[in-house]
Specification:
The complex is a heterodimer. By secondary structure, chain A is α/β, with parallel strands linked by helices. Chain A has helices at 47-54, 87-93, 105-108, 115-126, 128-145, 148-170, 175-182, 191-207, 213-217, 226-238, 256-273, 284-290, 308-313, 318-325, 362-366; strands at residues 3-15, 20-32, 36-40, 62-72, 79-81, 98-101, 244-248, 276-281, 293-298, 301-307, 372-375, 378-380. The chains are: A alpha/beta, B mainly alpha.
Chain lengths: 385, 348
């Protein structure tokens, strides 16, 4: 399978008053086309930061220090280096080719705009040409069908609309429509774009199995349940059929029954759209449900990358094994990992897991183990292998 | 709840509020003995002999409840008493002095709110960068400049050094004559609005020229206040999850700040903006005095230092009505900005 995202030597640091935090340290990771890759790890292991780094949305005072993230566009076949892209080009990718679903659906939606407004915004931003084409078709239908006195009066206006929407469909950044959309009152003349966007929005909401989509589109976030909100957020992320959907703990804040529905939805989306999904979670059970491959992270570094079957059948890295033992199961005594997560300000030298590792050697304390392939589709960063 | 029934309910609430306010203020004036209160109207040593008769006649030695009841009864018939300092009934005094104050408030409030919101947004969007530091210094300066000093400095520069370019007062002498003469109709006694209604350019420009300095003086302090509030409110809103969502959608930073963050940040600012308007419409003593802009603040101040009890009571009553009305407007505005707020229910 071909790669969609190729991350090499990615380092993200936070420059805080207490010192420099190495949130991600020399990370190498590939996301393949059409696969669901899970990133698992404890809180603070850098899994969410990896997701944000791909979108170049690492929050202040964090900074992407070095490395490269190459995005291989499936549609155009071209390769782009995301970290060197101009900001406006990057914006054209965000929400369009790569989109993201966040952990807390209640916080991810703006409380003062309707669900429909917030989803339409994505279409108005990234699908302007298509909206222009659809609006033009609608005006042309009016021009063909319109009869009578009223239609006669509106005819010149329709001709003008048809022309302007045609321009948008051809070149969304043409001067005339751009001028119009920047002047507050004139912006309303382009209302058909908004209408078309809301039609697409309702379709999108239906797609994520929201009943009564037209009504939900007109509602504000606080009027919906948590599961509905998360569906709306997913609809927003899927609006432009992204090639990569990043889901940052999308089920963590939901009830178990709703969680199951969400996981089902994610599976269906992947099957329907063929998008790759980067699924960030701390829940190994959830990862086993949806992921093809899993990357285990500890203190900003990768420990192990393998298929989900391998992870559960032949876990290699001591941390992965400890993590699996820490999953609560009926009839089994719960094992905790001794010690605490590595201090991000002063990480231990060598392998970051060595202070908590039962099989640490003197070498582990001195040198960092490299990620190496031990079997097909199985890589591990540990001197034991 | 329906808007109309909500407004009616809130207006009914005015009655207990006003009763409370008047009870409190009337109670304070009762701390003066009947003789002291009667003495306020003595101009001549010869009148001293009549004091007991005056006290008897106006019931100044009656129990508190009786005196309060009598006063309240008079207020209900529209008689607020006589304002000694301006030698006319209190109700007339309010009508005479309110337009000047309202004119100041009408011009200053939109300026204060718009500038405050704009500068606060800019400061938050440029947090810890030069623009933020610049506006912070300006805000501290504006906030800490004493009004009387700033007013006098402005007068000295724009009236003194620039030879009467921006004069104090409400109108120039000739224009004042013109305004009070026949063809000019005084609809509202707010000079700028009357000038527009009479389609009189020179009067409008003259009124505007006199407004500049007091409006600037008032704005400097209040813009600083609203700006700092807006900045902190914006920073809170910029840290929320929906901002990250907006950025992940691919929206430009300008849209993220001006659309997604600002609408949420406006909610607390609306409350304070309402109070700023109420405070300005209540009269601003120092500014009105320095610029000889005789409004309600000037009158209230004169009444207070001259122990003009009926004027002070009238002013307090006016004050209370204004605050309750502004509060009502603010509450209705809330529902326009924040869909989570329903009339009469608070945040869901």
């Amino acid at each position: 399978m071909k790669d969609l995202i190729r991350i090499r030597d990615l380092s993200v640091r936070f420059y805080t008053y207490e010192g420099v935090v190495h949130a991600i340290d020399d990370l190498d990771l590939d996301i393949r086309q059409g696969e669901t890759l899970g990133i698992v790890g404890e809180t603070g292991s850098g899994k969410s930061m990896t997701a944000l780094a791909i979108l170049r949305l690492v929050p202040y005072p964090g900074k992407i220090e070095s490395g490269s993230i190459v995005f291989c566009d499936r549609d155009s076949g071209g390769e782009v280096e995301l970290l060197k892209l101009r900001e406006d080009r990057m914006r054209a990718i965000r929400g369009n080719k790569i989109s993201m679903v966040f952990q807390e659906p209640g916080a991810a939606l703006n409380p003062v705009y309707t669900i429909g407004d917030q989803i339409s915004e994505v279409f108005l931003l990234h699908r302007r040409q298509e909206l222009g084409r659809r609006a033009r078709e609608r005006v042309d239908n009016l021009l063909n069908d319109g009869n009578g006195f009223g239609a006669g009066l509106k005819r010149p206006f329709w001709h003008w609309q048809s022309r302007i929407y045609d321009k948008i469909a051809e070149e969304p950044h043409a001067l005339e429509p751009r001028l119009l959309s920047h002047i507050p009152l004139f912006r309303r003349l382009l209302w058909r774009l908004k209408d078309e966007a809301s039609l697409l929005t309702v379709d999108m909401l239906k797609d994520v199995e929201i009943p009564d989509a037209a009504r939900v589109a007109a509602e504000y976030p606080h009027e919906l349940s948590g599961g509905m909100k998360q569906r709306a957020v997913i609809a927003m992320a899927l609006a432009c059929s992204p090639e990569l959907l990043i889901a940052d703990e999308p089920t963590t804040s939901l009830d178990v029954t709703i969680q199951a529905q969400m996981l089902e939805l994610f599976r269906r989306i992947k099957a329907d759209k063929g998008a790759s999904v980067l699924f960030v979670t701390h829940n190994l059970g959830v990862a086993s449900e949806v992921c093809d491959r899993v990357a285990v992270m500890y203190a900003g570094r990768l420990c192990e990358v393998c298929t989900v079957e391998e992870l559960f059948l032949h876990p290699l890295h001591p941390y992965t094994r400890a993590l699996l033992d820490a999953v609560p199961m009926p009839g089994k005594e719960l094992q905790t990992i001794p010690g605490a997560l590595a201090d991000a300000l002063n990480p231990p030298p060598g392998c970051r897991f060595h202070p908590r590792c039962p099989s640490a050697t003197p070498l582990c304390q001195q040198e960092r183990p490299k990620l190496k392939a031990v079997a097909k589709d199985h890589m591990v960063a540990c001197y034991l292998f | 709840m329906e808007l109309r029934s909500y407004i009616i309910r809130r207006l009914l609430l005015l009655i207990p509020v006003l009763l409370g306010v008047t009870l409190f203020i009337f109670g304070i004036t009762m701390m003066f003995s009947p003789t002291q209160r009667a003495m306020l109207y003595v101009r001549d040593a010869k009148q001293l002999a009549d004091l007991p008769a005056v006290i008897e006649r106006y019931g100044l030695d009656q129990p508190f409840v009786v005196q309060y009841g009598t006063w309240l009864g008079q207020v209900f018939t529209g008689n607020l008493g006589y304002s000694k300092v301006v030698s006319q009934p209190v109700s007339d005094a309010i009508i005479q002095f309110l337009p000047a104050t309202l004119e100041l408030a009408i011009f200053a409030t939109p300026l204060i709110i718009l500038l405050g919101i704009l500068l606060g947004t800019t400061a938050a969007a440029h947090k810890d960068r030069p623009l933020d530091h610049g506006t912070r210094v300006a805000a501290i300066l504006g906030w800490s400049l004493p009004t009387f000093w700033l007013g006098l400095m402005l007068l000295m520069i724009f009236y003194g050094f620039l030879r009467g370019f921006l004069p104090p007062g409400r109108l120039s002498v000739q224009i004042d004559l013109l305004v009070n003469a026949a063809p000019f109709i005084r609809y509202t006694h707010i000079n700028t609005i009357d000038a527009i209604l009479n389609l009189d350019g020179p009067v409008f420009l003259d009124a505007l020229r006199h407004l500049v300095l007091p409006v600037v003086t008032l704005s400097v302090v209040n813009v600083a206040f609203i700006m700092r509030l807006m900045r902190s409110s914006m920073l809170e809103s910029l840290g929320k999850g929906y901002i990250l969502t907006a950025r992940a959608k691919g929206l430009a930073e300008r849209v993220v700040v001006n659309k997604h963050a600002r609408r949420n940040a406006l909610i607390p600012v609306i409350t304070v903006s309402g109070y700023v308007f109420a405070a300005l419409a209540n009269g601003v003593v120092i500014t009105e005095t320095i610029f000889n802009f005789k409004g309600i603040g000037w009158w209230a101040w004169q009444s207070a230092i001259n122990l003009d009890i009926s004027s002070v009571l009238g002013f307090a009553l006016f004050n209370a009505v204004l605050f309750v009305l502004v509060n009502l407007v603010v509450d209705v505005l809330y529902t326009r900005v924040d869909p989570r707020v329903r009339l009469g229910q608070g945040v869901q």
